[in-house]
Amino acid sequence: MDTYRITCSQTKRSQALAHVHIYWDLQNVHLTQKQAELLVAFAKSKGRLDCFKAYYNSQKRNQLLAKNNVEYLGCQGVDVRSKDKNSVDKALTFDWIKGVYIKPSPEIMILVSGDRDFAPLVSLMLNVGKKIIVFAQRSSESKKLIKLVGDDNFHYVDELPSLFAGNTQDKADKISA
Predict the structure, then answer these.
(1) pLDDT of 14-42, one tens digit each?
(2) Coil, strand, or helix at residue 109?
């Protein structure tokens, strides 16, 4: 009987996991392979990672290599070969809005970009009840993005090791309790 209760509660917990999407602007934020792994681990600590997309321009060799280095994590590369200004931002924005309308719709959306051009999109998503978490490179962060999501939901990519370490320690503490 105790086994049955544990199984039922585990099933309810797994059904209640938040759906998480990651949208990464490779032109704006460079992640090492380890940072990308930690980003995925961070996202999975928040819920079920349903979507992980990285937007890049394959005509830029460094962006193509960065995308190739994280494909094993389940990252889907979106090649935006246009030379138009903000073409990557536009593709990311379009996919992000489209992602809200899929079923199940994500409750948590992670933006890996400090670009202020995303402020209207973040504002819109917050207004429809989405939790937004932003990761940015130091010195490329938008004050407006920080203000929109708040200090608790804004992080620098170099903080990923300590953020994930904190999550695993919190889980370990809960398990031992």
Answers:
(1) 457 999 999 999 988 988 889 999 999 99
(2) strand
Q: Are 119 and 144 in contact (CB under 8 A)?
A: yes
Helix (H) or strand (E) holding 30: none
For 19-160, list the strands marked E by DSSP: 19-25, 48-56, 76-79, 108-112, 131-136, 154-156
CA dist., res. 5 & res. 7, Å (int) = 5
**Contact yes or no for 67/34 (Cβ under 8 A):** no
Q: At what angle do helices 33-46 and 160-176 cross, to 10 degrees?
A: 40
pLDDT tens digits, 47-80: 999 999 999 888 887 887 888 788 888 899 899 9
Is the full-model pTM beyond 0.70? yes
Strands 108-112 and 19-25: parallel
* C-alpha to C-alpha distance for 102 and 89, rounded to whole angstroms: 20
Partners of 154 in beta bridges: 134
